[in-house]
Amino acid sequence: MKSGRVLLPVVAVVLIVAALVYFYFDPSSSRWFPRCMFLESTGFKCPGCGSQRAIHALLHGHVATAWHFNAMMVVSMPVIAFYLAVSAGKNRWPRFYDTMFSRPVLLSLVLLVVLWWVVRNVAGW
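Request: output the structure for the sequence above.
Response:
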């Protein structure tokens, strides 16, 4: 139980520091942000391509710009928040947790990511 008491504040600090880095430094113009190895080696965008720039844009309130960089990232943010809430309520609503983390639901989410991956490369997004 003690590890949970330590882990949560550590994760919170890491997320705050990451948010500050992405707020103050633009991945488009900073050389020290990592580039997508998949894009560099194949010329195709991975599902996450543009996510760093999208996070920077979102932190500045530029939703349309973030959408342009990676629409899936913008859509994923509330989904991730929802899944964090579902996880937090695991003990209170175990059947709902089991449903949301069931194989069909998780496979559907993976299928959506793969579909996004294909469409963004075929359509040139």
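The chain is about 70% helix and 0% strand.
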